[in-house]
TrEMBL record:
Pfam families the record matches: TMP-TENI
Highest taxon of source: Bacteria
Gene Ontology CC terms: cytoplasm
Stated name of the protein: Thiamine-phosphate synthase
């Protein structure tokens, strides 16, 4: 795996809440064509057998494009398919536990919801963080929006060391506001996955960052 992903400005999530399960390969290809420099498989409330099967299906597509393939939540699935990494939330245990289960260096990312959590993730050795949700979003139910005011600070401190991907309620129509607030990299889930043409929408997002 190359380190090109460190330059990624768009992080694509293949989220089973939006992507039809019989179209995951084409959705993944479209996200990559749209410029996503890193891809995550996220499937809440699905069985591990299903997620394992989807991971096996999507990994080669990402490999061929030299785009890292990250599994959300499940270290064991990431290890089983030899994914490029895992993404863990605040309640998903220490990052070191994930690293120990991989027998080679892999990407370990962390969701953060405050500047303090962002700093803690950096100190804990995260390879990148997600920072948000900036706005309330149905994709992450029950979490308040954290607003735009801390982006600059987190970007300057944590973002000078590891990639900081702003996330949560970001759409093509509010991207100028998010960028003006200091965001340099974004994760866009629903607006991209529900777009008529995912690849074109992705390119539009990148060109406005
Ligand atoms: N973590 C924080 S917000 C979020 C996740 C996974 C969901 C982002 O989805 P959307 O549809 O782009 O708001
Ligand atoms: Mg999680």
């Amino acid at each position: 795996m190359s380190n090109n992903w460190l330059e990624a400005t768009l992080y694509g999530i293949v989220d089973l809440g939006y992507a039809p399960e019989d179209r995951l390969p084409e959705v993944t290809r479209a996200l990559i064509a749209g410029g996503a420099g890193i891809i995550q498989l996220r499937a809440k409330d699905r069985t591990k057998d299903e997620i394992l099967a989807w991971a096996k299906e999507l990994l080669p597509i990402c490999r061929e494009a030299d785009v890292p393939f990250i599994v959300n939540d499940f270290i064991d699935i990431a290890v089983a398919v030899d994914a490029d990494g895992v993404h863990l939330g605040q309640d998903d245990g220490p990052l070191s536990a994930a690293r120990e289960q991989f027998n080679e260096p892999k990407i370990v990312g962390r969701s953060t919801h405050s500047p303090e959590q962002a700093q803690a993730a950096l100190a804990e050795g995260a390879d990148y963080i997600g920072f948000g949700p900036l706005f309330p979003t149905p994709t992450k139910k029950g979490r308040p929006g954290i607003g735009l005011e801390n982006i600059v600070g987190v970007q300057e401190t944590v973002g000078s060391k590891i990639p900081v991907f702003c996330i949560g309620g970001i759409r093509r129509d509010n991207l100028p506001e998010v960028k003006a607030a200091g965001a340099q990299r974004v994760v866009v889930v629903s607006d991209l996955l529900l777009a008529e043409d995912i690849a074109t929408a992705g390119q539009a997002i990148i060109s406005h960052l």
